[in-house]
Amino acid sequence: QTGAFTFDPGYTSTASCESKITYIDGDEGVLLYRGYPIDQLAEHSNFIEVAYLLLNGELPTKDEKTRFDHSITMHTMVHEQLKNFYNGFRRDAHPMAIMVGVVGALSAFYHDSTDITDPKQRLVASHRMIAKMPTIAAMAYKYSIGQAFVFPRNDLDYTSNFMRMCFAVQAEEFEVNPVLSSALDKIFILHMDHEQNASTSTVRLAGSSGANPFACIAAGIASLWGPAHGGANEAALNMLEEIGDVERIPEFIKRAKDKNDPFRLMGFGHRVYKNYDPRAKVMRKACHEVLDALGVRNEPLLQVAMELERIALEDEYFVEKKLYPNIDFYSGITLRALGFPTDMFTVLFALARTVGWIAQWSEMIEDPNQKIGRPRQIYTGAPARNYTAIDQR
Ligand code: SDX
After folding, report:
1. N or C, where is the chain less crowded by C-beta within 10 Å?
2. Which atom of ligand 1 is closest in space to residue 194's alpha carbon?
């Protein structure tokens, strides 16, 4: 899987940009972060190290990793006044609505890192964004369940800190289960970047106008929210619950193949992968690890998911359309087992994808030939014509 790649000319002719960050071979089911296969990084690395790799292009030395980790840790707190934004939302607001609003507001608090022409300010903004996403996400969760916010701690790793901010309560101490935080860390690595997907392209287009990085990330969060994109993990779990039992799988397979039925198998298919999404394989393994650690391996929805996958992979329609499970197919079951409600699943996706959004935004801003994005169109409207007064229409 390593070595020189030859791009498919057809693909490059529609390419929106050049990038050194992530490589996908959709036909072969290959995903590389800065040349490293995703399954190796998920197996052997961790969030902070992979974040450093995506931002800087190389795996860090021990000293580089320590300094990067310290910088991120020092930015995990948020301005005390930022809390006021949460109180403006109804308690039943979707956490993604809160994320779009609060992240968009960050530029109003951190004026010293919004000048994108200053490399130092860009670096601080990048570290601030990656560091504060878990705190903001955990606060969105706590707000939605009516519990007090929990502050970040400097003695916990990135993912354990996030889990504690979500699940600790003042009444008693919270011990993070290392097996579970390691599985979530792996899940974050899988979600960090994915080339020019809809939300990353949104961040790039917003950033190409010179908008500040916090506003660009808020635009990415808004795009990721859609059920065809980042919202698919929540939609996939809801679908598995609607199916409910392996006996009902054929009924849903039939619906997925019916062109007159808008139903799609959530967590299946991909615009680029026409083979198995390499992340889905790692996701399925992480799912089993979490359910085993929690002693719920016989979780009914896992049986439904595995049987649905088995049937779909043998079905000639799905084989012909090259539809395979994608990253979202097993993530919902896993995230719910970890204790997160379904409306937090896309928030976790956004938390991890912030690393890729920031890496791609930085790459674009640092490109000396970068210009404002201006997609063109094919005009199919009315031919030129003259105005007519209203009494002649
Ligand atoms: C993510 O871009 C990225 O990289 C995204 C992402 C990332 O990391 O950023 O990977 C994250 O968004 C993963 C995808 C999550 N979405 C879902 O799981 C929702 C369910 N999937 C479908 O909505 C769909 O597969 C899409 C939106 C993901 C892709 O749709 P496309 O571009 O139409 O796929 P396609 O052109 O390859 O479809 C081929 C055919 C089509 O039928 P025909 O027009 O040829 O008759 O297969 C059909 C599609 O209608 N099809 C499906 C299907 N997905 C595609 N039929 C049933 N069930 C499905 N899930």
Report:
1. C
2. 8
